[in-house]
Amino acid sequence: MTTDLPADVMVPFAVHVDFQSGALTPDPVILRRSHADLAGYFVNESDAPGEDEMYAVHEIRVPATNNNLLSSTTVLQPGTVGGEYFMTKGHFHATRDRAEIYLTLSGQGLLVMALEDGTTQTKEMRPGIVNYVPGHWAHRSVNTGDVPLVFYAVYIGDAGYDYATIADQGFPVIVVEGEDGPEVVPNPRYTGR
Ligand code: S6P
Ligand code: ZN
């Protein structure tokens, strides 16, 4: 029974996650990012970016407060722009000390993380891997495979998003196609410390 709950007590619920497609049932809120939305993020953009989808975020909505856990799947398409693998915009959390967990469901990629002082860490993403992103680390997912990279993320409700710092400064490193696979190399356009 769930009658007469106090105003701040939510009713438990369950959501089904399809590990291949990232689809959530019942339907969540879906945020779609096109190539055009990522304009300016890749170092070598030869063609004008179009409206094709680069990634989608399917978010289970709960109030964005620090007593709740927000969560979402991200479905990041495979491909490259100027030799750089498709990636998410990447962000710091607006509330900098808020941590996050990623569980990769399908595909393969790299999780690139950076502190504001330019220190970086890069970790593999593949099915079954849990990546812990402590507070203060900006994070960006990169699809280095041939199929969509699908992962489930859980984050503290009031983490928020600071996209501006990455949009302005870039990440200290980028992930490019090398002769023997993905290479993590310095970003020639990085303007942070
Ligand atoms: C939220 C979490 C993910 C990303 C998603 C898209 O804290 O890190 O749900 O929002 O992977 O990446 P981005 O950088 O465009 O938000
Ligand atoms: Zn995040």
UniProtKB/TrEMBL annotation:
Gene3D superfamilies: Jelly Rolls
UniProt keyword Ligase, yes or no: no
SUPFAM superfamilies: RmlC-like cupins (SSF51182)
Domain Glucose-6-phosphate isomerase prokaryote: 37-171
Listed EC numbers: 5.3.1.9
CDD domains assigned: cupin_PGI (cd02218)
A Gene Ontology molecular function term of the record: isomerase activity
Protein's pathway: Carbohydrate degradation; glycolysis; D-glyceraldehyde 3-phosphate and glycerone phosphate from D-glucose: step 2/4
Short name of one Pfam family: GPI
Keyword tags: Gluconeogenesis, Glycolysis, Isomerase
EC class of the enzyme, as a word: isomerase
Catalysed transformations (reactions): alpha-D-glucose 6-phosphate = beta-D-fructose 6-phosphate
InterPro entries: G6P_isomerase_prok, RmlC-like_jellyroll, RmlC_Cupin_sf
Similarity comment text for this entry: Belongs to the archaeal-type GPI family.
Protein name from the UniProt record: glucose-6-phosphate isomerase
Native source species: Nocardioides aquiterrae
Lineage, highest ranks first: Bacteria, Bacillati, Actinomycetota, Actinomycetes, Propionibacteriales
